[in-house]
């Protein structure tokens, strides 16, 4: 493709609201333009890369035995009401009405519509298993779109759904798709990790995320030398040993005046105690019912673990008004001592690490006052202890007991064992060998195609621009003519025609621009290989060959260039 015939508007500077490297470089390199918050136009170069990623996914899904379909973006509310997600999906679900007043949504995912499709035609175990997939636009009304196309409201996705008659078959499909994902992301040229993950709004009982490793990743991954790897939203933590002490070690509970000590940091400093000796009391509303959780002052509550423990559809942190009504104390001063006597019907939970505290500190349930020398078991007893902690440095692996290592990643794919969550509620049943009616067992497998592209940039770039992995590069090679006329242009035209005839996809910069502009654009766009034809080397029968990301170029004869390209692009 000659650049004089191509729509590729590059920019010297990124817009100020582009908040991460991939967003900045995608805009500067002419891949996308912003239409509205979280909504982007895709330009020819961006589309070219999307389609290369799509083709890799399609080939591997087909290899696994999946069949491609096309599902509607606009979906009727009654399907979502059958699955019960119409009420529980949340405000990310963009709901609309047609001219007759009927409710619809713009699909954020397709479990309901694909389940409805299969239940209309599948009635016997003989028609199972089957796995259907599609490529399509999804929409989630993010409260705060950010990170360019990585947390956009509108995005491009591949999603597949398996339907099985037995658990064994469902597990086989999960493994097939796991292996297909491994091949896909290897083919894309990524350093990545599959990790155990929470199932979230999709549901089901087991899932893996596929994380591209990148410092700018919004997800944190906990890993262990024994092989256990998970998103920290999911990470299980080995329960600590209970504090060891004797009765003689315990001191009497005392009230102390703590004016305006609303934070653990301020309180610990004021009382000259370690922050891990403080017990913070956190108030939540789970499906409109109050629940109290106790945590060490140094630990962060993992709301996903709490929601799953409670089996709640909706979990919300308490407003100040709700907090005060449920604890009869000002915000920041509630504590567990005497709480169950006053609020017998409110669930009082505690993280496992609270058991490591003795002679600790907690709120006294009145303004500007705390209690010191508080010990669980003696001064209060929660209804239950469980793992509610967000994994952090120093926490131990539940499998082997060794400390976790942490890294950051970008989620590009997610696979789920759904079980019968959707088929049971939507009546997607089949007759088994004994003519008994059973719900179909499902799996769900999604890849954010547009996120894959952004993740590639986050993992592979430098100060000058993008460095595309060859498998998803928009072009095989960039050819640059340093003159737009004369012998240089003639030789560059000749090489362009020869390489194109050999089946290579060439970006040919034939513009009438200064060499510096061409080189800067080439580095910005990031095609892996570059050939430069200039008047200095041409009389010697030589060209400059450069690999993107490497500092130095090579000077090659035309014969050496031909051999190099055959080596690189012989399939």
Give the gist of this structure.
The protein folds into 3 domains: 49-236 and 406-458, BirA Bifunctional Protein, domain 2 (2-Layer Sandwich), CATH 3.30.930.10; 257-386, YbaK/aminoacyl-tRNA synthetase-associated domain (YbaK protein, Alpha-Beta Complex); 475-569, Anticodon-binding domain (Rossmann fold), CATH 3.40.50.800. It is α+β, with helices and mostly antiparallel strands and 571 residues long.
Please characterize this protein's 3D structure.
The structure is a single chain. With 571 residues, the chain is of the alpha+beta class. It is 27% helix and 28% strand. The chain folds into three domains: 49-236 and 406-458, BirA Bifunctional Protein, domain 2 (2-Layer Sandwich); 257-386, YbaK/aminoacyl-tRNA synthetase-associated domain (YbaK protein); 475-569, Anticodon-binding domain (Rossmann fold, 3-Layer(aba) Sandwich), CATH 3.40.50.800. The strands form eight sheets. Strands 3, 7, 8, 9, 10, 11, 12, 21 and 24 form a nine-stranded mixed beta sheet that branches. Strand 5 and strand 6 (103-106) form a beta hairpin. The two termini are 21 Å apart. The mean pLDDT is 94.
